[in-house]
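Notes from the pairing session

We agreed to fold both candidates in a single pass and log them together. This is the raw record for the first candidate, unedited. Please don't reformat it; downstream parsing expects exactly this layout.

Candidate A
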Amino acid sequence: MIAFVKGGLAALAVSALAGGALAAEADPADLAVARSLATMLQSARAVVSTNQARINDPALGDKGLSGAAVLEKAIANYREATGRDPASIDPASYEGRLIRAQMDAVVEVMDANQATINAKGTGFKGFIPATFTRLVNEAFEARVGAEASMKFTAPPVLIRNRKARPDAFEAAAIRDYLEKADWPKGQIYSALVSEAGGERARVMVPEYYVPSCLTCHGDPAGELDVTGYPKEGAHEGDLGGVISIGLIPQ
């Protein structure tokens, strides 16, 4: 599982992408919403990650990972990480609408994949944290429409699924900031940008490889991992991915 650095989510105040004009960072209120959404996604993904051996156990049928069960554990992880109960967030607020849509997406994805997760006689199911993350983000976006966007992307050389390819903003932010040796680990990048439909707050939350990631992404580079992809030869602490969030400025 890719990890982020707790307590390191300070934002860059002013920035320029690819040598362009200076762009103001997102407003603190927007950054708070983005952090909340990123933490809930990480909290739910952690449940899938810690249960990978259980999911892939061919001798076990029902894994006890229904949508409700996973959401309950995700909420517990979120509370531990933030000190907040998502149920306490005003459901009429922007954050409240988005966090509830995200939690509903977690339930939807887990319930829709029960046949795969619970299949006896099959070892590796292909239901890995990366797949879970993509499906949850897609279900989230289907619920919120133009109100927000969420995507898990990465440096182009690490992309395994075309749907995760960074757009121009994401690629520039990764290249010009998040991949730099002097970029403070865990610090997010944000900017207010003009896009079709109006201004958007774009927030990039970096995540880094931890030892459990290296089974698929570590050495030896080029060797096929359990999913059939060649390993990248990554090391613990390398930038492994980015949660990219788009919000309507509040």
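Candidate B (folded immediately after A)
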Amino acid sequence: MLFNSFVFLLAFLPAALILHGLAERFRHGWRLPVLLLLSFVFYGWWDLRFVPLLAGSILVNWLVARAYLRSRAGLLIPVAIAGNLVVLALFKYLNFFADLANLIPGLHAPHLDWVLPLGISFFTFHHVMYLTDLKAGRAPAYGLVRYALYIGFFPQVLAGPLVRWSEIMHQFEERPYARPDAAERIGRGIMLLCVGLSKKVFLGDPLSVYVNPVFQAAAAGKAVTVAEAWQATLGFTFQIYFDFSGYTDMALGLALLFGIVLPQNFDVPYRATSLRDFWRRWHMTLSRFLRDYLYIGMGGNRCGLGIQLAALFATMTLGGLWHGAGLTFVVWGALHGLGLGLGVLWRRAGVQVPALLGWALTALFVVLTWVLFRATSFEAALIIFKGLFGLAPIGSGFKWRTILIAAAIAMVGPSAWAAVHRLPPNRALAAAFAVLFVVVLLKIGDDANYEFIYFQF
């Protein structure tokens, strides 16, 4: 059930809002169980086989947390975290490790073509955050329903944002529709939903037409012209932004409709003037997770320059592996680790870089490394890079208008969250968003619906 589908927008969402509203109004104690049931229905719509995995994961981790609070057994939490990561590895990385093993002469590790459960990376990281904070004495115990809703809340279970327990647990006990700003929250939630849908349907999906054929040709070993390489690379740069930030806007908007405020995940990242600034603006909740639960755990900037650089490199390399079970993702992450390390050295040298130059260098680095993120192999990436660096025929037909419009929208103006909260509520604005929603529905009905890019991670 995609957020950009009729079954979600015209059936599941209205029914969910009605059921949640009735529970909140007449049986407040039923509100959280109703939300949890709706979340499992939403998750199970994709594939009922995934539901026992999600439910079992929630139950086991909750029981481990309760057992730890009773016994204070020191190894219980590390073993549970390791168990979560093993389950993730079995589903997501088993074939990747098999491919690495097969590089050794004489070995032949078989592939197990398991279906990757949707959202497994995201709900695994939610378990890790809570259990880590529980062991550190920062997190309290919670009942099963609240913990299950923290892990499985349907707007964010499939592709984030990554939410800390401290950001959401207290909100579950509120009376969201009794708040004085309830109507305003609902209005802003609807606006965010419409903006996110518009990003996906009008910008992200159309760019795929200029991106996918070129990368498919490269994957097949066909030559790619300079024009095609730059069209596909720049197109993907903005496609992934509108696709993923559009999903995030929808998730934040949907959560507001149910009385929950989720953290922002994007803050105009392509305006960043350094690579560190980029990662403070792009997939902000993942960046925060990597910083707090990996980078700092490895020593961070507290143990000298050498440890800091090694921790940056290791953190971003693991972040690349998290994005996909392939060496291209690993190298993509490693390059960002090296880039962040060079940024540390540059700042230590005290050399000032003009903002415009910093933006240009950052944008060029990010755009070029997106090739490794998108390409299906190093051979395909090399074909694209040859085109980017002029080692191929020039070609023609570069779709500059569509990409220029996308670039302008991505880099000019505030984030969707900031824009929606700046707009004053009034009838004209409500009418405008109603028209926008109808236009989006007409566009969805006219075209094929594309799955969100980050669903594969």
